[in-house]
Design brief:
Layout: E1 4-9, E2 13-14, E3 28-29, E4 33-38, E5 42-46, H1 52-65, E6 68-73, H2 85-91, E7 96-99, H3 102-110, H4 114-124, E8 136-137, E9 142-145, E10 148-157, E11 162-168, E12 173-182, H5 193-208, E13 213-219, H6 228-248, H7 252-262, H8 269-278
Helix pairs in contact: 1-2, 5-6, 6-7, 7-8
Length: 282
Amino acid sequence: MSLTIDVFNSGYLPVNGGPGWDSASTATWPASTATLIAGERDAILVDALMTIDEGRQLASWIGEAGKNLTSIVITHGHGDHFFGAGPVLAAFPEARLLALNNTVVDEGRMHLEPEILQNWIGWFGDRFDQKAAVPESLGSDALAVEEHSMHLIEVGGADGALGTVVHIPELDTVCAGDAVYNNIHMWLWNSTRASRRTWLSTIDAVADLKPTTIIAGHKDPDALDDNAERQIAQSRHYVEAFDQAVEKSQSAQDVIDEMTKTFPDYGNPYTLFLSAHSQYQA
């Protein structure tokens, strides 16, 4: 039996917008994905979302698929990709929570330390597990579902953390975590010119895998498709456009106006708000 891929999309989650956000509009967290890669009996899950409720939904969704979950693979250490794993691990106690290496593991552990945890609390309150399980290091790039081989590959820095991707050669597919986005404003909060250049190199590393399909970690629910070429091109364009907007603008609002004009249909303007304002902090 060949592999199958199913994608769970969280949709946009309301969050506390914080200082400066126009309360007349609802601030939201970008729509996020979790991907079930399944064989005849077994499956692995790529990323596990943010909230306790999302984790419960994931556990039910996997249960309905009728597969034996062997592992949850985390693409990078940001909390919105693994804080939701608890209910899934409770439903599938034999499954392991994994990341490629200790760099990703340490990043995940850092997001549960008080200073960064307070950011998550500010956005989500008590809707997530503040003592979430931290992934363990796989220590290898080899993954498998039954006889089907795939690879967990380090591609480089993206939205503030080391990014890894799951490459499934059999399906010409990459689960890209946050290395590539799909029709959503990209998380450039506290980015610098250097980090943006790094992200462009990371996008190139994903392109070098020559996938036809990319499952982006953040995907608008109404995105046209999962075409790899389109997503790679639009992600490059977005990072370059943001960099140019910051260079020529005098204020965060200038950046927001320029990026909104260039990307009028992208989801989650709150991400753009945070990214733009981070460039002009006193």
